[in-house]
Design brief:
alpha+beta, elongated, single chain
């Protein structure tokens, strides 16, 4: 039987004899040392490959895109602009909310990495800077976007400084609805969040849409009180966003819930064929009856124009139309031609031009004197889940081109590629080592 020692001796006959090793088979010492060195190299290569894979996995778990440095929040109004298109952050972006006034607030799908290859997705609220157009995710405590959506539950002030939303309790389980307990506002220039609440109501029931007053000082809403269900049990309230002070605009008892409007100062709302206006500092109230049922009404800059969306009174009111003029008297029954169905009054470009929207997807800038209109295309990926909210005052400044947003691709791709290369190299090394062992055997 030929033993391993015999084979080693046969190979060693042709190898150089190691000095000082006369007691070994000639050349065996050098051959042995060379084999030991090769074995050590194979083990080192395998250990290095495994270590590299471990490092790549750890990096994949921790990888994040670095958000850009925040800009100063206090900038002149002339430097604030609406983008020509509202573009959300890239779905993989980790950019935080930009400091300073926002041009728009919207909803978009956010993707987060889990491990080296996994991911999870959720709808989240983002804001677009009115200063430089960069977008980032808003951290709004007490928000459950998956069950709420955007329209009706959120509001952006006309000057872009404040974001308001309905505040909910933490749900008891994932995906469950949670009761509303109040409202909150975010000051985008400081990052401060203020909680607002009706002290006599522990849980808010049947709250209506949120809106800001035209001067961005008050958050407006109405909600049901304990006197019983139905529209006549709603209380109309306004919260000062700086102090949290609550003003009761109307006590329960009205047949209709208010439809919020705007003006350069005070609170505007409509109900039926009447537009109401309140100065919260003096308590002065005015009511202006109109021939049409009012959907929404707005005064222009310095009260030098008036516009409202209305339809014929009654259950069969028909199609909404835009009524506008240089005063309330002129606008009362003066319908302007428009090629789209008006749904909102988004703001004013100046005292002659009102911005009319059809749920913020189709926009017309209308001259209230001549009736001529200009189309503005705001279509973008940001409208996929909900039409974004826009800062109405910024229509007075020129629009600027949209900014390309970072974070559109998985930041772990370089690590995936590196892991694949290292893994392939390790596999080749292991196969080579295994083949060498078979040859020697």
């Amino acid at each position: 039987m030929i033993t391993l020692r015999d084979r080693l001796a046969d190979l060693a006959d042709t190898a150089e004899q190691a000095p000082g090793d006369d007691h070994l088979v000639p050349g065996a010492a050098a051959l042995w040392e060379r084999g030991v060195r090769r074995a050590r190299l194979r083990r080192s290569a395998s250990v290095a490959a495994v270590a590299a894979v471990v490092v790549l996995v750890a990096a994949g778990l921790a990888v994040r895109t670095d958000p850009p440095a925040p800009l100063p929040a206090d900038v002149p109004f002339e430097r604030l602009h609406l983008p020509e298109q509202v573009r959300p952050p890239g779905t993989w972006s980790d950019a935080e909310a930009p400091a300073g006034p926002l041009a728009a607030v919207g909803l978009f799908l956010r993707t987060r990495p889990e491990g080296l290859f996994g991911e999870r997705q959720s709808l989240e609220v983002f804001g677009v800077s009115a200063v430089d157009g960069r977008a980032g995710w808003l951290d709004l405590p007490g928000v459950s976007v998956e069950s709420q959506g955007l329209v009706g539950w959120f509001a952006l002030s006309p000057d872009g400084r404040w974001v308001g939303w309905t505040r909910h309790e933490e749900p008891r389980r994932a995906g469950a609805s949670a009761p509303q307990v109040g409202w909150s506002v975010l000051d985008t220039t400081t990052g401060e969040v203020r909680e607002l609440a009706d002290p006599r109501v522990r849980r808010v029931v049947d709250a209506t849409d949120l809106a800001f007053s035209g001067d961005s000082r008050l958050l407006l809403t109405s909600h049901e009180v304990r006197s019983g269900p139905g529209p006549r049990s709603h209380r109309f309230v306004a919260f000062d966003v700086r102090t949290g002070e609550r003003t009761v605009v109307e006590q329960p008892g009205e047949k209709w819930v208010p439809s919020f409007g705007s003006s350069p100062s005070g609170i505007v709302w409509s109900r039926g064929q009447t537009v109401h206006r309140l100065d919260p500092l003096t308590g002065e109230r005015r009511a202006r009856p109109l021939p049409q049922s009012v959907v929404v009404a707005s005064w222009g800059p310095d009260d030098r124009a008036f516009a409202y969306v209305g339809r014929r009174p009654g259950a069969e009111g028909g199609r909404e139309r835009l009524y506008a003029g240089r005063s309330v008297a002129e606008a009362r029954d003066r319908a302007l031609p428009l090629d789209v169905r008006p749904g909102q009054l988004l703001g004013w470009r100046d005292e002659r031009h009102v911005v009319v929207g059809h749920w913020r997807t189709t926009v017309r800038v209308v001259d209230v004197v001549t009736g001529e209109s200009e189309s503005v295309d705001l279509g973008s990926a940001a409208s996929r889940y909900s039409a974004p909210l826009l800062a109405g005052d910024l229509w007075q400044n020129p629009m600027v081109p949209a900014v390309e947003q970072a974070g559109g691709s998985d930041p772990r791709r370089p690590y995936h590629l590196g892991a694949a290369v290292v893994g392939a190299a390790a596999l080749v090394g292991l196969l080579w080592a295994r083949r060498r062992r078979r040859v020697r055997g």
